[in-house]
Amino acid sequence: MTLIDNHEAVGMEGAPRLSEASARDYFELLKPRVMSLVVFTAFAGLVLAPGQINPVIGFIAILCIAVGAGASGALNMWYDADIDAVMTRTAQRPIPAGKVLPQEALAFGLTLSAFSVTILGLAVNWFAAGLLAFTIFFYVVIYTMWLKRSTPQNIVIGGAAGAFPPMIGWACVTGGISIESIVLFLIIFLWTPAHFWALALFKMRDYDAVGVPMMPNVCGEATTKRQIVVYAVLTALSGICPTLLGFASLGYGAFAAAMGLGFVWYSLGVLRMPEGDKRMLPAKKLFGFSIAYLFAIFSALLADLLIAGIWRGGIV
Predict the structure, then answer these.
(1) Facing residues of 10 across strands?
(2) Could you say which of 3.40.50.720, 1.10.357.140, 2.60.40.10, 3.20.10.10 is the CATH number of the domain covering 1-177?
(3) pLDDT (tens digit, 9 = 90+) per residue, 86-128?
(4) In angstroms, what is the C-alpha Rg of the chain?
(5) d(Cα 44, Cα 123) in Å, to the nearest integer?
(6) Which of 73, 163, 217, 257 is 20 to 30 Å from the Cα of 246, by its Cα?
(7) 297 and 39 Cβ atoms separated by less than 8 Å
(8) Across residues 198-225, what is the average pLDDT?
């Protein structure tokens, strides 16, 4: 049985029924791949922030951010179950596959949202908790319910939701935000369009089938390719900002510049891709490299901090 109604599911006699979902099915609702990126960038923000945080409190903070991200994913799947059932990339998600009922996913997501925000506020600080609550709201209401189905700029504006985690991690330590945390936010925010539009290029048919106005479907391949290059350049420039602003070393800056050039190079490959290319290999390569780029940039920032600490400690 396939369920595509994301508002209500009933049994044969009209009475609400419960699914026989496994723990794995509920775990899949959390979008674990997306959560791993959220956890990593939030951890980077927490570690890079000036000051100290008790390791136990730090662990609780990261756990709450992870749970909040998972809650967002569950609520996104609840609302998007109708289009997920049609798209090949998402048809086997727990709700359209009939493993989890929509109302169960909704209750699960709301419960985790309340839990993550409350515990973060009580254990860490309420500014960080408020930022987490806003991030969940932004992703579920602003992006999923509004922007995603109404404008080809959906991922540009909605991408802010995925850019907040390092800022939340920073706020867990400092109780506020700063130019440094804003730069971490901007790196992800500017990275998102090129990353996601590369995916949209080779999944155009899926988005067209469900009426989601992604950039390639609405504005065409040529416009999308040009905008991918623009955002790749902006991402490359944002990647070196930590060095320009003095909170990362020249070594990091050189590495970030090299990775940024790689990002631009792959985007130019997409720009040169023939119109109507069914294989879309350059777009697939850019999509893969973009994931590696973001992990590499934040790993380099952490490594740079570690090396600087060793140097100041007199070990080197």
Answers:
(1) 16
(2) 1.10.357.140
(3) 998 899 999 999 999 999 999 999 999 999 999 999 999 999 9
(4) 21
(5) 19
(6) 163
(7) no
(8) 91
Give the start-to-end residue ranges of the domains of the chain. Answer: 1-177, 178-309
**Does 1.10.1760 match the CATH number of domain 178-309?**
no
Does the structure show a pLDDT above 90 at 65? yes
Q: What are phi and psi of 253, to 5 degrees?
A: -60, -40
Give the integer Cα–Cα distance in Å for 179 and 160.
Answer: 16
Alpha-helix residue ranges (DSSP H) falling in the chain: 23-29, 32-48, 55-79, 81-84, 102-123, 126-137, 154-158, 160-163, 165-174, 179-201, 204-210, 215-219, 221-239, 241-244, 250-271, 281-312
Burial 14-37 (b: 16+ CB within 10 A, else e): eeeeebebeeebbebbbbeeebeb
Report the alpha-carbon distance of residue 53 to residue 307 in Å, rounded. Answer: 20
Q: How far is CA 131 from the centre of its chain?
A: 15
Cβ partners under 8 Å of residue 128, min gap 6: 61, 120, 121, 168, 171, 172, 175
Task: Tell me how far apart the alpha carbons of residues 289 and 314 are, in angstroms, rounded to a whole number.
Answer: 37
The answer to whether 100 touches 29, Cβ cutoff 8 Å, is yes
Global pTM exceeds 0.85 = yes
pLDDT given at position 103: 95
